[in-house]
Every structure is written in C-alpha cells, then in structure tokens.
C-alpha cells in the first residue's frame, strides 16, 4: 500500500471575532478581540496526513497578497 496522498481543497484565512453577546436584530456590535487563524478543510487534511507520515501533495489556490504569502509560509512550515 502506498502512503502518497494528493489533497485538492480549500485553504482559508479565518478571522474569529469575540463579541460581548449575540446581537439583536438590527444591533451593531464592536468586537472585543480578533484572532486570525489558518483553516480550510483541504489544508487541514493535508497537514494531518503529513503529520501521520504520508507523503502529501496539496493543490489549492492562494491569493497574491499578504494573506496568500502568509498561508504559503504556514504550509511550508507544516510540511
């Protein structure tokens, strides 16, 4: 059995905002905190398979901006 895996999937930069309470209809809230994380089902699967020892090739589309550059670094860092 081969341990080579091709993952074709998404890679997302997620912005998680903490708010004081769930909003009421029409209410505007200001975030208390924001955390930027890397996500996407494809990226998560590719990294998990690599950590389990598989040789992984991950195909995705990254933006030509700061977030794409940062995500590219994150993927290289995680094999």
What can you tell me about this protein's structure?
- With 79 residues, this protein is an alpha+beta fold.
- It is 29% helix and 30% strand.
- The strands form 2 sheets. Strands 1-4 form a two-stranded parallel sheet. A two-stranded antiparallel sheet has the order 2-3.
- The longest helix has 12 residues, at 66-77.
- Major β-sheet, in short? 2 strands, parallel
Low-pLDDT runs: none
N-to-C series of helices and strands:
EEEHEH
Overall geometry comes to elongated
Radius of gyration (CA) equals 17 Å
| Structure classification | alpha+beta
| Strand order in the largest sheet | 1-4
- How many strand elements? 4
Output mean pLDDT. 93
Give helix % range. 25-40%
Distance between the termini: 22 Å
Put simply, the count of helices is 2
Strand percentage lies at 25-35%
Mind sketching the topology for me?
Elements: E1 4-8, E2 12-18, E3 33-39, H1 41-51, E4 55-59, H2 66-77
Parallel strand pairs: 1-4
Antiparallel strand pairs: 2-3
List keywords for this structure.
single chain, 79 residues, alpha+beta, two-stranded antiparallel ribbon, 2 helices, 4 strands
In short:
By secondary structure, the protein is α+β, with helices and mostly antiparallel strands.
